[in-house]
Design goal:
255 residues, 6-stranded mixed beta sheet, 3-stranded mixed beta sheet, binds acetyl coenzyme *A
Length: 255
């Protein structure tokens, strides 16, 4: 494992671990005794990892230690009421927390959430912040925020709508109901559902498959697909040409 640029002690205090093995970085939510509930330090720690990620990392795996992926926000912060951290916040405050999630969609990496047990609120949104989700057959998702009087604001609302569509997203948010693994897979919230004992192996196989693609091709493909939803067919065809020409030149140009 390589040394990371982030301070391990600070990360541990934020309930995080960070490891790099070649082109693969792994972020572990590591407060299992609190079901990996997240504090402000957790979200800021995630942002720091994103800011200091080495350029040669191509895949980022986000996983949780223990029975749950994450129980979302640490409810202790809510319980403090007017004396707590949310009594006087502004746009920059929320943007700073969102920064912990946004970088996971960077074109230079593919991010994978490995989800077991519960993914609730901010935990569900962290799974949504990743490009891909591999889940266990005992996993479940719950967008708890509206039940607590708030909206999902950790960048989860867009990927949720993109994946399940507006009506289903509205229903999931406003009922805060728990979505079991089989339904999650049907809705497109998981690329793969596996028995709990197979999670690490399945993620490892996926990582190996992703790394088998040439780095420039992987980045170009992610950029291309990420813009498809907002482009017209003509615009997307032009984007395909722009993406392909340098790859063809690199593969086939006479030396
Ligand atoms: N914040 C703080 N502590 C938590 C949280 C949380 N979100 N979730 C669990 N814990 C603590 C429990 O209080 C308990 O502590 P204790 O051992 O001192 O009693 C410990 O973690 C284990 O929790 P259990 O409830 O005993 O574990 P179980 O596996 O039975 O249930 C579950 C797990 C379903 C995640 C349950 O703990 C739960 O519903 N937690 C609250 C989830 C929630 O509402 N999160 C807010 C989402 S909204 C947002 O993120 C913005």
């Amino acid at each position: 494992m390589a040394e990371s640029a982030v301070n391990d002690g600070e990360l541990a205090a934020a309930g995080l671990r960070f490891d790099i093995d070649g082109a693969v970085a792994t972020i572990t939510l590591s407060r299992p005794e609190r079901r990996n509930a997240m504090t402000l330090a957790t979200w800021r720690g995630l942002a720091t990892i994103g800011q200091t990620l080495p350029d040669d990392v191509r895949v980022v795996v986000v996983r949780g230690e223990g029975p749950s992926f994450s129980a979302g926000i640490d409810l202790g912060m809510f319980a403090q009421g007017a004396d707590g951290p949310f009594s006087d916040v502004d746009d920059d405050f929320i943007a700073g927390l969102q920064a912990g999630y946004l970088w996971l969609r960077r074109p230079e990496i593919v991010s994978i959430a490995a989800v077991q047990g519960h993914a609730i609120g901010g935990g569900f949104q962290l799974a949504l912040a990743c490009d891909l989700r591999v889940i266990t057959d005992d996993a479940s998702f719950c967008m708890k925020e509206p039940a607590l009087g708030i909206v999902p604001d950790l960048t989860g609302s867009k990927p949720l709508v993109d994946i399940v569509g507006y009506p289903r997203a509205l229903e999931l948010c406003l009922t805060s109901r728990t979505v079991p693994a089989d339904e999650a897979a049907r809705l497109g919230l998981a690329e793969l559902v596996v028995p709990a004992a197979d999670l690490d192996g399945a993620v490892g196989d996926l990582v190996a498959a992703l790394l088998a693609v040439r780095p420039a091709t992987a980045v170009a493909t992610k950029r291309l697909l990420a813009q498809a939803g907002r482009n017209t067919l003509t615009e997307q065809a032009a984007a395909e040409r722009r993406a392909q020409l340098p790859l063809l030149a690199d593969l086939f140009q006479k030396r």
